[in-house]
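ok, trying the design again with the full structure, not the truncated one.
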């Protein structure tokens, strides 16, 4: 299907499409058979970072998009702490040489979310801005401060990278 869209510049997919990259029996493609050489904007909606198929599928799309400039990921948190989160250590071989902006929505500070942010900051030498919008979780000032403190410690490949952590200061 994707081979028929070589000039695709913008792609918006949800978790169902991302899960479809699973080859079966727990195997997931690392790269698509054809590259999205024209894809500059990728939006992934309702991605559950606790699901290995979804995390691997998202990275498959990102790896197959060498000219990607803008990335948006809306995270779905099922808050099932009994399910162990996958690790992103196997994704450390990727570099996003053209990635300039990242928007992450629904971040509550889970280990896998922080690994994703750390990886994107460390592997994006052209990154200008990363915008992080908190999700529904522990909205206490202490929890948000903990996430913010961790964000400031992450190494950045780009000296220009600005990390904006959107905090809603309006009381609910």
């Amino acid at each position: 299907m994707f081979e028929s869209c070589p000039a695709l510049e913008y792609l918006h997919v949800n978790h169902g499409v991302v899960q479809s990259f699973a080859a079966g029996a727990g195997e997931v493609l690392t790269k698509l058979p054809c590259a999205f050489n024209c894809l500059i904007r990728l939006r992934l909606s309702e991605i559950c970072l606790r699901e290995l198929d979804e995390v691997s599928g998202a990275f498959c799309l990102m790896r197959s998009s060498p000219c990607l400039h803008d990335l948006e990921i809306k995270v779905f948190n099922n808050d099932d702490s009994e399910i162990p989160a996958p690790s992103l250590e196997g994704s450390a071989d990727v570099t996003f040489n053209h990635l300039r902006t990242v928007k992450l929505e629904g971040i509550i500070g889970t280990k896998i979310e922080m690994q994703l942010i750390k990886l994107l900051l460390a592997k994006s030498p052209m990154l200008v801005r990363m915008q992080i919008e908190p999700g529904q979780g522990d909205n206490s000032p202490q929890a948000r401060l903990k996430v913010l403190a961790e964000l400031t410690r992450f190494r950045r490949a780009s000296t220009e990278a600005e990390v904006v952590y959107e905090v809603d200061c309006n009381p609910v």
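Keeping the full-length input from now on. The first helix runs from residue 15 to 19.
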